[in-house]
Amino acid sequence: xxxxxxxxxxxSPISARDVAGAGTTPHWVDVVDGAVWWAESRPHExxxxxxxxxxxxxxxxxxxxxxxxxxxVHEYGGRPWLLRGDTLVFTHWDDQRLYALDLxxxxxxxxxxxxxPDTAQGVRFADLCPGPPGEVWAVRETALGPGRAxxxxxxxxxxLSGGSPRPLAASHHFLTAPRxxxxxxxxxxxxxxxxxxxxxTTSLCVAEVLGDGTLGPHRVLAGDAATSVCQLDWDGPDxxxxxxxxxxxxxxxxxxxxxxxxxxxxxxxELGGPLWKLGSRWTTPLGGGRHAVLTTHxxxxxxxxxxxxxxxxxxxxxxxxxxxxxxxxxxxxxAAGPARRAAVVRVHPGDGTITDLTDPAPGPASxxxxxPRIRSFPAGDGSTVPAYVYPPANPDHTGPEGxxxxxxxxxxGGPTGRHHPALELDFAFFTSxxxxxVAVDYGGSTGRGRAYRExxxxxxxxxxxxxxxxxxxxxxxxxxADPDRLAIRGGSAGGFTAAASATTRGLYRAATAKYxxxxxxxxxxxxxxxxDFESRYVEGLVGPLPDTEGRYTARSPLHNxxxxxxxxxxxxxxxxxxCPPEQAERFVAALRGSGxxxxxxxxxxxxHGFRRAETMVTALETELAxxxxxxxxxxxxxxxxxxxx
Length: 645
Prior knowledge:
Structural class: mainly beta
């Protein structure tokens, strides 16, 4: 018989340390000579990224400490490893150089391939791809000055024998996906320029490989002002398979060298995604005109002969990382589901058989886990807003009769991103204590075509705020949420939405903003408070400068502090180059003496997003204590939070 306990004070077997332990995350999966390789982020090793492989049922560590296969190109990073024969090439986080490990000689046989840069981490490499024999191709990012946006990029060939990288292409300010044709006569890549983001406008470029190994002038085969390309691969020597969206949906197309393009399917569904990390893969060929693809709902198979897209393992694996590879007659990747944490899995497309290649860590009993309820809510402009409702769940407790639970409205980052209906242990940390969570795919989210993505164009700080409020008010209207105990939370762009909501809506009694954007005008290239990749992102989200400069002030949480309806908690990495600490510090300085309770908790050594176990534990426990303090419930086993007025 469950005990009647106030919502928020339920005792739970899910600790913050459990959540941090679940942060051991695989990514960058590939198959080499029958072995499945991947990178693995490890919070318990201070965020180190190891490289491992699976062979015949056994997992082997291939890159021991202290090496960390991670890079900071675009600050979000890109594919950090490639195997060429018996040589493992990888980027190392500490200095951003390329290194080679001779697998025949053992784990200590590591040698640098690129020189020590003049400034620390001043030359970075990502999106490692095969070149001709003896070479690795990569995107190189070079710091040109002290500013965060003072960088240049090119595609280079790096000799495995040592020596300086050889420039290949610099067609655009941003480049990715250098691909050498099977006959080595052509090379292809993607490029785009400010102020576009890669999901706005990208060009698919192709050039001849000249006799000396350099590239001739490039031609643009696909991409225009209203079309983007997020993945490309050669399909023989004379054609490419590219995921592009001329019809408003990212679907694979076959594009020949004369520029003729044909969609492989006519479905109106997203089979691609936003290119936040260089080297992402949403599709892989299976042979015979069949392709494994990732849809909004999970893995599927696209059959060129019919154009049909048939789901695989539907319902069990609902969230996939864009890192697909073929393994024999199966597909490998990183996937999670409503009752499954993210793991490397092997899925047979024929019968949907799932094999876990990583041992899932023991987790809490399913009775303590909320089952995400996929919902749609009406928005003020007549649109439909998808959301995922995670109600309180704990077999040991129930709330007092007539009392409604507090609810956290979760705004995802990006803002060009989305949520997935999968197990989120950080959500379960709250729901198992009697606090509901609702994750909102506000206008601008991906997975629903270009039209929904562009609902946010010019409307950031309005559309996202309105959509989150509409969902929260609907839950209150249905009697599911306590109207006096609503909070909003988010990280990065989600932190902006949380802070903007708290300063412009009287709906929320508390807000948590992790590594947020709080002052829009400085968060630009000439403002100096963000990195080059997103330095003109706001021009599409808010409006072009200087014509709409007034919007930047009007929508910035820092300039709307008089509208704060409740306390604010800020959680910030001290080495964040994307949403730098000076934004949070100015916000807190402006709040001093205002009477509004607030706290800023900073974490040395952390960048954008938290990677260290101790940081994750402190951040989550502080957030719970914050809600307990504001909403008036006990938080047993969690240190109290200190708020300033």
